[in-house]
Design brief:
Distance between the termini: 75 Å
Radius of gyration: 19 Å
Number of strands: 5
Strand content: 15-25%
Helix content: 25-40%
Structural class: alpha+beta
Number of helices: 4
Shape: elongated
Length: 132
């Protein structure tokens, strides 16, 4: 069993069906790995990268971050990582809560795919109606 002196913060972020488990450790240099890959390797576009790490711009502290994300598509995974990081930043420094909350990063987006109903083709799409 390894005895670690560094205290870490563990949070969870969710969006649609994706779940991100975020572990943040204060460190002298910044580093982030997502599913054992670098940030640039995991997210194919720069927009998704910027979206995912946007909560870290609110703090001057540097962290070593490891994220395990599963489920959903790449966009919802980016949003779930963002929520997990925002919760971690607030847990690390409670004075940043107002700033992060004002930017809407602490909201869990509840929109998800609606279930299919009996007698319909999709959630709301009905079969073509014919008079006779």
């Amino acid at each position: 069993m390894k005895d670690t002196k560094a205290k870490y913060i563990e949070t969870v972020g969710r969006r649609k069906t994706s779940i991100a488990r975020v572990r943040m450790t204060p460190d002298s240099k910044f580093g982030i790995t997502i599913n054992d890959r670098t940030l640039a390797d995991y997210f194919p576009t720069k927009d998704l990268e910027i979206n995912a790490i946007s909560p870290l711009g609110k703090t001057e502290q540097k962290f070593k971050i490891t994220v395990v994300v599963s489920g959903g598509g790449i966009s919802s995974q980016s949003d779930s990582v963002k929520l997990g990081l925002a919760r971690g930043v607030v847990e690390f420094d409670a004075t940043l809560r107002g700033v992060v909350k004002k930017d809407g990063m602490l909201k869990r987006d509840p929109r998800a795919k609606e279930r299919r109903k009996f007698g319909l083709k999709k959630a709301r799409k009905a079969p073509q109606w014919s008079k006779r």
